[in-house]
Amino acid sequence: MCPKRFYEIVPPNVDPSGLSGQLLVIEGADGSGRSTQISIVTEWLERKGYPVVNVGLKRSTLISKQLITAQESKAIGPITLNLFYATDFVDQLENVIIPALRAGFVVLSDRYIYTLMVRAIVRGVDHEWVRSMYSLAIMPDAVFYLKVDSQLLIERNFQKKATLDYWESGMDIGYSQDMFQSFFTYQKKIQKQFLLMKDEYGFQVINGNRSVRAITKDLQARIETLLT
Amino acid sequence: MMNSIYSQEEKYPGVLIAVEGLDGSGKSTQIHLIQRWLELEGYKVYFTEWNSSLAIKPATQKAKKRQLLTPTTFSLIHCTDFADRYERQIWPLLRAGYIVLSDRYIYTAFARDAVRKCNLNWVKKMYSFAVHPFLTFFFHVPLEVALNRILSSRPKLKYHEAGMDLNLADSAYKSFRIFQGRINQEYLKLAKDYHMITIDATQHVEKQQEEVRNIIRKKIDLSRFKWRQ
Q1: Predicted ipTM?
Q2: What is the reported pLDDT for B2?
Q3: Segments making up each domain of chain B, as ranges
Q4: Which residues of chain A lie closer than 8 angstroms to B4, CB-CB?
Q5: pTM score, two decimals?
Q6: Using an 8 Å Cβ cutoff, are B81 and A66 in contact?
């Protein structure tokens, strides 16, 4: 197990040594199959005897409720929204992710800083600002990006909820009054940003257009090489 | 490339005035009097204060009460509060040609977060979406005076207010003294770095107010901010 590194800054009061667990991240749009894969992989790891902790966006005790309320109000600026998410992230980083890694757990993260960075950049927030904001995150042992065509994303979203989410359609940006059209435009831009960040942050791009089982097999093979 | 949605180069017709200083420096009284003066003279004025966003303040209060905050989340949650006020009020009103008065501004965060050992470059970058005020008044009092003003009038100190999260001392009073002393050190540096106008806050309230009004009259063409008849 390799020691953990922070991107640039170790937050005050955090001891960066002795974090012996594994931090695995799955990134991808709504409808990319992220959550399905996370629950399958969690079960698989536990069956193999690895202790697992799940984390994800909007799950902090500190601020998740207020974040959801603020989002529902739709009266919130892009910087504020990002700071809300950053607060939510750091609360989990310091209180869940780091203690779990110290205890030797596998931490499976349903999305990570990259989604937050990409969303902010697509909304016109300065790159350097975004990069600096998340420079106090731990570098994961692996980041899997589930890449799915927008047409398929839309089908899966409708299958799941028969509706499109306001924020996942980028309606706040105002590409189009037509949510369907906005969804395409927004998801394309998000995907483009993810691919631009791929090399720098070492994403493993996974073809998410395949069946659930095929994706699981792919992920399992990649994770197995990390768990020796 | 700076592609920021809040460009620091954008010209705006409004003017931003901030006050900074230790608890007990009297800055809130002073900015209140400035607000009353400008309102009664018929100018477009908006007042905002630290830690007052309706969307975030309840969370901050709860977190402080339950002692859930680390230096980093303390810093982030206050920046979130500031950003909400900035994006929805301060910046739009500056663009609309208002005099915006701010009781504490980003320098409060710089001072407090530095004392809590946050990386100051990180903190400054985080607040870099915000414009610097046209005028920042620093109400300077000797540490002992500020401490006495607070400690004589408000004996129950809150946990973070006293810097108890820094484990500086066992009692809140002792901790408050050490904590405020460190904040004061940071303020003195910031006042210099950011060209704040230092006001001797040991003087009488009216005397200070007169000085502040004179500076505002001299530096700002107030006629631009009159409501249209």
Answers
A1: 0.95
A2: 41
A3: 15-218
A4: 124-126, 129
A5: 0.95
A6: no
